[in-house]
């Protein structure tokens, strides 16, 4: 073979490919990873029930807290001449047997009921998270705290609440006044009797997380238990805590409404949705709409919170989020 033949490329061999990779493929390699909270929000938006439930709950919150600023009728003002009126421009939901505006009483009652639900939920969430983290992280406390949790779960909730209301109503009323005292009593009563599900859920997650590699690595470098819980355990159990928080609001609102309906809640002249429902039962045949409005408000609030909790559970669970 001559030198000239060596310089001529073989016609049977294809030239080396110099094509640039497709733009889409290159973007896939250079695209920054999506943040976890953006993935959570994307999954939450895909749950239509949770999205609509969150919007409805936000509307209810704005209505009960900001509505009285725009609708300035006093919910406790008595006007006998305007009693038992139907819906009108002056009174969109009508008036009750004493001439009080039902629309303003619905907003005032919703503010009380939602405030009780949120405050009682925070108390139950704090107690449940504390017991769950301690029981899951410290093995020597696990048996004692879980047996205490089982004991509270075995107690009948409604009779226990009734006994607490009867025992502590008068002392708290004398110390803080009838409205503030009943508010504290109802919040504490609901909070200390509804922390158990949160404790059991948090304990199960802590038991699984404390055996993970990053926790073992943190323990190997001498991280204290307090820093271990605050920096590594609690941030990884936020998912069940947030879900329990949303569902706890619904439970607390139903419990407060039940107590008020039984006449053991706030004073008769202090409106709550349960108290409005109780007052309307005497006029059920003549004015059935009086039962409809507070019942609808309770149902919509509880339904929206439950849908919101379902959406948060699906969005925050990594096993479901990838589906």
Automatic annotation (TrEMBL):
Show the coiled coil region(s): none
Gene Ontology BP annotations: transmembrane transport
Q: Which compartments is it annotated to reside in?
A: Cell membrane
Q: Which residues form the ABC transmembrane type-1 domain?
A: 110-309
What membrane topology was assigned to this protein in its record?
A: Multi-pass membrane protein
Q: Name one GO cellular component term.
A: plasma membrane
> tRNA processing: is it a keyword of this entry?
no
**Among its keywords, does the record have Transport?**
yes
InterPro entries with a match to the protein in the record: BP-dependent_transpt_permease (IPR050366), MetI-like (IPR000515), MetI-like_sf (IPR035906), OppC_N (IPR025966)
Q: CDD domains in the record, alphabetically?
A: TM_PBP2 (cd06261)
One Pfam family it belongs to: OppC_N
Q: Which family does it belong to?
A: Belongs to the binding-protein-dependent transport system permease family.
Q: What is the protein's given name? A: Peptide ABC transporter permease
The root-end lineage is: Bacteria, Pseudomonadati, Pseudomonadota, Alphaproteobacteria, Rhodobacterales
């Amino acid at each position: 073979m001559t030198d000239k033949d060596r310089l001529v490329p073989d016609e049977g061999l294809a030239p080396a490919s110099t094509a640039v990779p497709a733009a889409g493929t290159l973007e896939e390699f250079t695209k920054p990873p999506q943040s976890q909270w953006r993935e959570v929000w994307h999954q939450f938006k895909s749950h239509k029930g949770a999205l609509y439930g969150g919007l409805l709950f936000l509307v209810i919150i704005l209505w009960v807290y900001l509505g009285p600023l725009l609708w300035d009728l006093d919910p406790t003002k008595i006007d006998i001449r305007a009693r038992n009126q139907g819906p009108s421009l002056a009174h969109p939901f009508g008036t009750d047997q004493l001439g009080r505006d039902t629309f303003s009483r619905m907003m005032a009652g919703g503010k009380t009921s939602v405030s009780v639900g949120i405050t009682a939920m925070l108390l139950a969430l704090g107690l449940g998270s504390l017991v769950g983290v301690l029981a899951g992280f410290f093995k020597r406390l696990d048996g004692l705290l879980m047996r205490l949790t089982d004991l509270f779960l075995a107690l009948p909730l409604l009779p226990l609440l009734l006994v607490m209301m009867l025992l502590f109503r008068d002392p708290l009323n004398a110390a803080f006044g009838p409205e503030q005292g009943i508010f504290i009593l109802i919040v504490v009563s609901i909070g200390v009797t509804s922390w158990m599900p949160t404790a059991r859920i948090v304990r199960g997650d802590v038991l699984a997380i404390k055996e993970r590699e990053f926790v073992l690595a943190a323990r190997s470098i001498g991280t204290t238990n307090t820093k271990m819980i605050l920096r590594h355990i609690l941030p990884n159990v936020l998912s069940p805590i947030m879900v329990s928080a949303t569902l706890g609001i619904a439970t607390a609102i139903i419990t407060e409404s039940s107590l008020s309906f039984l006449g053991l809640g706030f004073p008769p002249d202090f409106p709550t949705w349960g108290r409005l429902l109780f007052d309307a039962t005497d006029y059920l045949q003549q004015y059935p709409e009086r039962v409809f409005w507070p019942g609808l408000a309770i149902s919509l609030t509880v339904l929206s919170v439950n849908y919101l909790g379902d959406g948060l559970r699906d969005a925050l669970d990594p096993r479901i989020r990838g589906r």
